[in-house]
User: Fold this.
Amino acid sequence: MYALKFGWRLLTARLGVNRCHLCTDGVAVTDRFGRVRDSLAWNEVTGVQQTAAVGFVMGCHRVEIFRSRSGAPLWLVAPGAKSALVQALLAEGRRSGALQ
Assistant:
């Protein structure tokens, strides 16, 4: 079972699924089959909540991006204690004027 799970993660990483796509207009997150799970435009963003969990062996960041319209926030989990994805996400949000 562990080998199957590891193989699936390796295959999905090579095929480009389970990704967060940063664009100048907004963010799109894909699911494990490569389909867009959720997306939002930067002008809809009202806030961002970032939670970091760092352990002895690994760490990860959970990022929730809240929208102005009524709906569930877009969330994603980025692996690594110092995730380049989280830094790029926050920098793009600041550049577009959605975040301070």
